[in-house]
Each structure stands twice: as structure tokens, then as C-alpha cells.
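Appendix B, Record 12. Input sequence as logged:
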Amino acid sequence: MENDWEDIPVQSRGFFRGIGPVAFIVLVLMILFAAVLLLSTVKIGGTQVGIVEKKLGGGAMPSGRVIAVNRENGIQAQVLTPGWHFFYWSWQYSIKKVPWTEIEEGKVGLVTAKDGRTLPPNTIYAPEWDQPDKMITADYFLGEGNGYKGPQLTVLKPGAYRINTELFEVTQVPVVNVKVGTVAVIKSNVGEIAQTEDRLVEVGQRGIWNKPLTEGQYYLNTKANEVTMIDIRQIKVSYTKEVESGERTKDQPLKPITVRSSDGFTFPVDVRITYRIEPQNAPLAVAMIGDNDFILDKVVTPRVRATFRNNAEKVKALDYVQNRSHQEQQSAEMLKTDLAKYGATFLELSIGDIGDEASLGTLLKTQTDREIALQEQATFEEQQRAAEKKKALTKTTQEAEEEKRLATAAYGVKIAEQDKQKRIIGAQAEAEQVRLVAEAKAQAYRLISEVLGADNAALIEIMKVASETGVKITPDVMVGGPGSGMTDALMGTVLKGMLNKESSATKK
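Logged structural output:
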């Protein structure tokens, strides 16, 4: 003991002399306890989870269990959270520190339990939990929660979770992202089994849900629920040599549809068709066909080809070419009915080029020559009709001119007749005037004769005439013989002068 006292440093001997033997022993024990306690302490970091495995002192776990719930030996259900934990002796416990489980944004965590009750018959996924946080609490899951072993229907949303990774295995998969212009049709492998004629079930039942998921993000277990995206926008497909912008082509343009007419001509037909899947019809389309590629390859394309080939078999090639609009309308009506059976809505159909030089060149040339001949004949007939019309017009024009001349002549006759009547009436008026003047003169003459005598009256009239006509008074007629008087001489001279005056006027 003395040797031991000598080993204590000189600076510390005073301290030990003051505490006494008992206190010294207690202090030594406390130091030993602290050292032992420190050796049994475990520190778990803020982003870590401590997985505990008990080696001794717990007894064996029940048969079939892999996680200890009641502190049996083995991996413990309860995990160590961040902080200091004591009395985990290295000889009794093994502590494994693992990172917490973090689900990234845009993903969901699919959980599989390695321990728990056996799944019920005819089920491959454990029923969904109302409270996911309780599901991932291992001691609750295996204890009061009576969780099932195997794949869990419940998923973990984005975030961090302190999970016992020895009980739960978590796989991250993308969320179901339904983009604009699409819907998601769900085929569920879990839920109540329902018997339906059209293979569609209510949401939550096992089978294809009758209502699709519209635009948005959904946290679904994509292993328990198969997701089929369906494009609900208009889809334009070209069965042509060349494809327009925005048309559905897959890896390469679809070939023109080859048809055969009733008169044995085989020729290609360029066809463009537009259709769409209505959102409410998407589940039916998936149930009967599959995804967008299957709808095009297994339904639309075969129906289009069959429709055009069947219609072409009923007509001759030339009639087919000449009745394009009828073929479009007829084929459109048939496709509208056929595609509706599969949940596809027909929108539009158009026929482009029909045939080519190799298939219909000779027929079309013959038809062209015939059309030219018919056009020439029609032109000749039109010219003939024009000539006949011109002839008729000329005849009509001549007749109009003749009628005009006849009318003019008739008017001339009528005018002449009227002039004649006018002259007759004028002459009659003039004669009447002369008669009245003569009668007046005669009456005046008789009155003068009665007063002055016949010779004197005659002489007065002769003198008046001579004055009015400018006849000279000197007589050119000699008066002689008995009975001849002055009056006779003057009358003769006047008469002669009047005759000479008329003769001069006639010569002029």
C-alpha cells in the first residue's frame, strides 16, 4: 500500500488525505460506473436511425418471426431515434446506424414488409392503411396493428421517414403524372372483385376503373395499379406517301390503302382520318384494345383499310374516281359506327390522290380522250345552237325591219290619205269660198246694175280688174260695127291682158 501511495503524484496526495478511505472508494466506483456507462452509450445523428440487434438475455423469438417485438433476441422492432441512448452494452446489443428514408419530390415509396401476418387468400397486396405513419412504426405494425407481410398497398409520399429498414424495404417510383391532353386509365389488382359485362368496375374495385384520372399528380402504388396513359387530343393519321405536319406517323408514314374495283383495277388511295378518344370513353378503349398504339394498330388502321376495300369492290374504277365525295361520305359513316364500338370517336375523313400512272394511267387517258371528244362534240353542238340562234335572231331582225317598213308605209298611206282629205276639204272650202264670193259679187253686181245699169256696172268691174291686175287701158281691139260698145272693147283688152299674163307665168 505504501508503494501505491508513493505512486500518487505529490500534487494529489493532499486531496486524497482529505477525503478519507470511504469517500475514496465511492469516488473510484463512480469513476468506474461512468466509464462503463460511457461504454454502453450510443449517439444517433439527426438524419440517422439506429437498428438494434439483441444478442443475449432476450430468449428466442416465436417461430416464423424475423423481427423481435417483445425484446426477444434478434433484430428489434423499435429503432433508436436521434440523440443519446444508454445501457446498450456492446456484449448484449449490436447497433447499426443507417440514414433515414427520404422520398424525393415527384416520387412515391413502395413498401414491402419482411415480417407480419400472412396475406389473406387471393390477395397479393396488404390492405391500405388509413394512417401511413402507424404503418411504418415497426412495433405497432407487428403488434397492435396486425400488419401483413409482403407488398403494402399504402405508399409513402415525398418526405423523410425513420424506418426500420430491417423490416421495411422501400422502393421509389415516379408519381402518376397525368399531363394536359391525356387521362390515366387504372387497372387495379386489389380490392373487391366485381362481375361486369364490359370489364369496367367502380373506382376502388379490382379491375379497370370506369372513371379515368384527369390532369394532375397522383400518389398511387403503380405495382398494385397498372396505369395506361391515353391521349385524348385529336389524332390525325395519314395513309399516304407523304405526311403533313402534326400527323401520327409512328416510326414511318403509313402506306396508302390499296383497293380493288369491281372491274378488276387495283390502285392506291390516299386517305387521311382524324379521331379522338373522349375522356369518358378511355376506360372502354383500354378494356377492349389497350393503349394508344394498340388503338391505332389494332382497330383504326384495320377498320379504315377494310372499309375502303369493301366499298371499292362494289363499284368500277372510273366510278370510284369520279365519285370521290360519295366514297368519302359513305366511308365516314361506316367508320363512325365501327370506331364507336371501341370507344373511339370518328371526326373527319378525306380522300387525296386516287390511283397513279401505273395503276390507272391507261384508264384515265381513255377517259381523258373521251372527255375531250365529248367536250369537242359539246362545243360543236353549242356552236350549232349559237348559229341557229343567230339565224333566228337575223330572221327576227329582218322581220322587225320589214314590220318597221310596213308600219312606216302604213303610216305614210294614212298620212297621204289624211293629206288628201285635207286637200279635198281645202279645195271644197276654197270652192265654197269662191262660190260665196261669186254669189256676193253677183249679188252686188245685180244691185249696181239695177241702180246704174248693166253697162255701167260692167264698166266699173272692168276698171276694178284692170286696177288689180295692172292691165293697160288702151284697147288693143278695135271696136267697130253695130252693137259693139265701149264696154266690149275694154273687156276684150282686159281678157287679152290676163291671157298674156298667164302665158308668161307658165313659161317661167
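Residues 1-5 have pLDDT under 50 and may be disordered.
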